[in-house]
Amino acid sequence: MNRSAKDIYYVKAEIEKKIKHSYLEKYIDKPAIDEEKLFLLMEMMNHSSLPESHKQRYIVTTMLVQMALDTHDKVPSLTSPNENEDVKLQKQLHVLAGDYYSGLYYLVLAEISDFEFIQLLASTIKEINEYKMKLYYNEIDSLQDYMLIRNIIDTHLLVQVASFLNISMMGKIVEKWLLVIKLINDIEHFNARKMQVHSWVKSFFDKSELSKQLTALLQQLEDEVHKLSSIYSSLSNYLETEITSIKKAYISTMGEEG
């Protein structure tokens, strides 16, 4: 399996076929497929020892889990007593949709009887939800704590899959790259005053701190990419190009602002 645009399009089409549900689509938006995570999963599978016949199923099931987690996140944590029935229905359907996507991955994996991978995904979902509860119940007291917990929520699934595939080094690089993407989104939303975080978190945010984290993380990522074996040339070439582009777009701008 390689990661050509044609392959990504084909796997996306397979995922979309799995999640198609006419009733849900009538009331809620079809969930977006995170193409960056899909690309990274395909790279990981390409360097795994799994049988070719199983690789696509592992990708599809992992993305179904990611979509289930993302869909549950769309349910507002606060409820207004003045909500109309349509709003209530939409909330309920987001919960049911997330559960539906979760159930689909069990079905796909059951077809290849991979109970070990089912167990891994189930335990990872449990761990991610526990971290989400820490945010929900305000169990943080600094920007660093908030960023750490949120970053685990965003990267833990792919990191655990990499560990399962015995490519932990690749998992560490994937983790750092996803954090870079998250920080860039934070900075862009901060600039546009569209930070979608709890009010008690906003007081922690400081653009200069976000910029420092991005600069340090890019340097760490660049150093690790340079150490990658030549067998990972596809991933390293992609990341080197992206890192250079980010430095031009963000690091130079941040230097001018400072």
* Tally of strands: 0
Low-pLDDT segments? 75-80
Can you tell me the number of structural domains?
A: 2
Intertermini distance: 45 Å
CATH topology of the largest domain, by name, is: Farnesyl Diphosphate Synthase
Protein name: Heptaprenyl diphosphate synthase
Pfam families: HEPPP_synt_1 (PF07307)
InterPro entries: HEPPP_synth_su1
GO biological process, one term: menaquinone biosynthetic process
List keywords for this structure.
0% strand; globular; Farnesyl Diphosphate Synthase; 258 residues; single chain; mainly alpha; 2 domains
In short:
Pfam families: HEPPP_synt_1. This protein has helices at 5-19, 22-27, 35-46, 52-73, 85-110, 115-136, 143-164, 168-191, 199-202, 207-226, 233-257. The chain is built from eleven helices and no strands.
Would you write up a description of this structure?
The chain is mainly alpha-helical and 258 residues long. The chain folds into 2 domains: 1-145, Farnesyl Diphosphate Synthase; 167-257. Helices cover 77% and strands 0% of the residues. The chain is built from 11 helices and no strands. It has helices spanning 5-19, 22-27, 35-46, 52-73, 85-110, 115-136, 143-164, 168-191, 199-202, 207-226, 233-257. Helix 3 (35-46) packs antiparallel against helix 4, helix 6 (115-136) runs antiparallel to helix 7 (143-164) and helix 7 (143-164) packs antiparallel against helix 8. The longest helix has 26 residues, at 85-110.
